[in-house]
Fold this protein.
Amino acid sequence: MLSATAAQAGPVPQRQKNQAARIHQGVEAGSLTRGEAKALRHEQRHINRFRRDALSDGHMDRKEMRILTNAQGKANRHIHRLKHNGQEVR
């Protein structure tokens, strides 16, 4: 049986995969520069590291889940802003 926190952590890895795919798509389409993609990937690594550390004791409490969700939302906004900032790779 899954605990409530384990169930809440379920969409987190999928959201990370979706964000990584959006970064990759932005690079392929030329809407993200190499530097922008590098910064976004660094942010994704930071989020992944936080998630791993939060789960190191076997569960993620509400505070950790809120921090993680907020970080993912912030990363989502960063991806959108950088993909649509008018800088294109030619």
Observations:
- The mean pLDDT is 90.
